[in-house]
Specification:
Elements (H helix, E strand, L loop, with lengths): L4 E7 L3 E8 L2 E9 L2 H4 L9 H14 L9 E4 L11 E3 L2 H9 L10 H13 L2 E5 L27 H14 L8 E7 L3 E7 L2 E4 L20 H8 L4 H9 L3 H6 L4 H9 L3 H24 L6 E6 L5 H11 L5 E5 L3 H13 L18 H11 L1
Helix pairs in contact: 3-4, 5-12, 9-10, 10-11
């Protein structure tokens, strides 16, 4: 059987990644950085669409890359409402929700489905999104909070988390659907999640400030402390500290984890405390996720750019190895994961899913039953 060609498009905050695959082999890839000041000139994420698409076309032309014969185009799926994991065919509803960022998160990943769709129409190919950022497979016990009507949600690096788990399961001769893992993505943002038999049953809302401190994110803090901090702050400033100006940026004014590590190694006590605190919090969250799996783990998996740091991996192993074996996968598999998701559909290994356009959690059954009783 001829190997399918897949073209993947991943628009990020300050970069756009593209890659052309044949099967699992990369034929061409490029990561283009964008000047933050230039992007700031656009009034909205949607206004970046023409610029980013044209840039992709120019790169392909410059490198003499033809997209003729591509079987499927896969775009990073931002802006969508919570859904189960899997590969979804891009349709009008996905395009509508991505274009208006229906989930309320303004991120360039919303442009992924729109660009993929236009290429797919031009070349007569299939079009998909794979494990979008809003994958929500929480078990019921992970949803309720101590405030009536407020439920937990998760925003995680679902694409890389699931692909890391799929690949590790294969490496030990098993299927992802038969394993239990705690999987971490440790980069500019840090996601920690519990995976049970192919479902991501718990994790943290890293967009909302949950989980460990990260280079640009504040991590979990007490509500009382946050309210006190808010007393003389603008709400927009407070929101930024969740995802842009918290963590290392708040303390040292830098987001480069390597710079903080190097300062720590050079004797900077402040930097060392920050570095070690971040790792300590990561390990606490790993332990928390392990509990949701009743301690029955087939492994603790570490992915993301910071996992290249041997000191970090060593510290995590020292604190967590007693729970389950710790395996490091430095870097990320996002582009590979997008291509692999499309190939599984094209080869009949999985069934393509249809986006419903509504959150896959609509409250607990007993709450709806109580509403009906009250109406009667």
């Amino acid at each position: 059987m001829a190997q399918h060609k897949i073209f993947t498009i991943n628009p990020g905050s300050t970069s756009t990644k593209i890659a052309l695959f044949q099967g699992d082999k990369i034929l061409f890839s490029q990561n283009v950085s964008h000047d933050a000041a230039f992007l700031a000139k656009f009034n909205s994420i949607s206004e970046q669409y023409i610029y980013r698409k044209k840039m992709i076309e120019e790169i392909l032309e410059k490198n003499h890359i033809s997209l003729e014969g591509v079987s499927a185009f896969v775009g990073r799926g931002g802006g969508l409402l919570p859904m189960e994991g899997g590969t979804y065919e891009i349709d009008e509803l996905i395009l509508e929700h991505a274009s208006k960022c229906a989930n309320g998160v303004q991120h360039p990943a919303c442009l992924g489905p729109l660009i993929a769709h236009e290429f797919a129409v031009k070349y007569g190919a299939k079009e998909y999104v794979v494990n979008p950022p809003d994958v929500d497979e929480l078990q019921d016990l992970a949803r309720m909070t101590g405030i009536k009507g407020v439920y937990r949600v998760v925003h995680l690096h679902a694409l890389n988390l699931k692909e890391t788990a799929i690949r590790h399961a294969k490496s030990i001769g098993r299927k992802y659907e038969d394993c239990n893992f705690v999987v971490c993505h440790i980069g500019g943002g840090i996601s920690i999640s519990a995976h049970r038999k192919g479902k991501m049953i718990d994790g943290y809302d890293i967009v909302g400030g949950e989980g460990p401190m990260a280079p640009t994110r504040c991590g979990s803090i007490s509500v009382a402390n946050l309210l006190k901090y808010c007393e003389d702050k603008d709400l927009k400033e407070v929101k930024k500290i969740c995802t842009q100006s918290g963590g290392f940026v708040s303390h040292l004014g830098v987001s480069d984890a390597l710079e903080v590590f190097n300062r720590a190694q050079a004797g900077d006590k402040y930097a060392k405390m920050l570095w070690d605190t971040m790792i300590y919090q990561i390990c606490k969250c790993i332990g928390s996720m392990a509990v949701t799996l009743h301690g029955k783990l087939d492994g603790i998996l570490l992915g993301g750019g910071m996992v290249y740091n041997e000191d970090m991996v060593r510290q995590i192993r020292e604190l967590c190895q007693w729970i389950a074996p710790v395996t490091a996968y430095p870097g990320e598999f996002e582009m590979e994961a997008m291509a692999a998701g499309a190939i599984r559909i094209l080869e009949g290994e999985e069934e393509v899913k249809k986006y419903k356009g509504v959150s896959n959690f609509q409250g607990f059954d007993f709450e709806h039953e109580k509403e009906v009783i009250n109406e009667l």
